[in-house]
Amino acid sequence: KICSVSVCPGVDCQVGDWSSWSVCDRTHPHQYRSRSIQRSPINGGAECPSELSEIQGCSTAPEDCTLSAWTEWSACDKSCFGGQKYRERNIASVNDMG
What we know:
The protein has 98 residues and is an all-beta fold. Helix content is 0%, strand content 20%.
């Protein structure tokens, strides 16, 4: 025997949260993010948004790399006739954007 003949209410589309933006670097000049449909609409519920992904350009002005502090001067490499002293510094952080 048939029962509950009323029409079920509409269920709206549900989308998930946006993912984090992808990484910018020299080989990827754009960032992407996306979200997915968690539940499709049923019985006339609100439709899902058409935009499930986004793209944006990365900064075109990369930051400079950073250098360590200078080391102390070395001892003189010769005891006479024009010896030299040396000091150095290293790259402390590299900028991936070049």
